[in-house]
Amino acid sequence: AQKITQTQPGMFVQEKEAVTLDCTYDTSDQSYGLFWYKQPSSGEMIFLIYQGSYDEQNATEGRYSLNFQKARKSANLVISASQLGDSAMYFCAMRELYSGGGADGLTFGKGTHLIIQP
Amino acid sequence: NAGVMQNPRHLVRRRGQEARLRCSPMKGHSHVYWYRQLPEEGLKFMVYLQKENIIDESGMPKERFSAEFPKEGPSILRIQQVVRGDSAAYFCASSPRLEANEQFFGPGTRLTVL
Question: Between the N and C ends of chain B, which has fewer C-beta atoms within 10 Å?
Answer without folding.
Answer: N
